[in-house]
Request: fold
Amino acid sequence: MADILQPRDAKDVEAAVSWALAEGKALEVAGAGSKRLIGRPSQTDLTLDLSRLRGVTLYEPEELVLSAKAGTPLAEIEALTAANGQELAFEPMDYGPLLGQPGDLGTIGGALATNLSGPRRLKAGAARDHFLGVAAVSGRGETFKSGGRVVKNVTGYDMCKLLAGSWGTLAAMTDVTIKTLPRAETEATLLVRGLAAASAVRAMSAAMGSSCDVSGAAHLPSNLVKRIAVGDIADAPGAITVFRLEGVEPSVRHRLQALQTLMRPSGSLETAGGQASRQLWRAIRNVMAFAANTNGADRPIWRISTAPNNGALVAAIAQERGGDAMLDWAGGLVWLALPPSDDAGAAWLRRTVADFGGHATFIRAPAAIRAVIEVFEPPDPGLGALTKRVKESFDPNGVLNRGRMYAGV
Reply:
């Protein structure tokens, strides 16, 4: 048997998992492999490569629904929906540049399995909120289906929500159905120059609490602004706090004026529209300030989710230790690049996050470090026991992505 299994359809996936179960083998479930370097190092014998399961099988723009095989590239789906004036509203990020790989490799199955989301998370939700239906093969070698083509169709257990964020540890998805939404006619971004992180969080909180319907709020300190290479935005000195507005042109123009009035006391204001705005938010979505081709590519990268008003506090503590921080989700998402160390700062960072509330995920580091520290937030005993029972229900022999998230699970 080859080290890589490449099934051509759902039946082949079922056969591959059944074979591995019978032979006592463990399988790494992968699509294009764009997120392979996240998580604990593989403890598997073979790779179940789902990249041949590709193609959109149903798309009804008028019904806002799309079905595709799990290995279908996200870029292909985004191009198709854009041609019909629609989009994936959860704005899935592309981990490729952050992990030193080419961009646009991610698949729809990978986006759902890791529950991806971008800056629009604070308005539109994450991938799981747009996940309508799935066909998958469990670690028992059994094919099952859940959900369908509309939101209100779930009786019993909602398997889609369970599989979203499971990182392929419960089942190998073969077909998925997602919700699409109309694409905004236009967008504009308001930039506030020169705010410190604490002031930026206060400004973002004010914007989110206003009637301006902000669809993105982020803050980059001055040294990170220089790394995103988006036109004139990166040329001017100082930190930037940015707010995105989307919709029809008259509405965007009216809300932009209202937001300018609200933000004028905070600092110097600028506006970016059209292509410049889209490029800026793509750079924020993909954390290009910490891309592997920038200075400090050897620094460990952490992703912290916390209450928005705690974001600046976490960033300040990290900066005291020589780290750099970028805030997204109005301060609720903190991206940290820390100085290299034996434990990548895990001990003090987890204590810090525990004090403020939230969770930290280790995104980028050599395999040797990922093997000895917890990559995902360690669960409390009750949640850990529940996680283990769910894993045993779907995959009692640990066939799928063994140990990817937690040791022994």
Remarks:
- The longest helix spans residues 249-263.
- The longest strand covers residues 171-179.
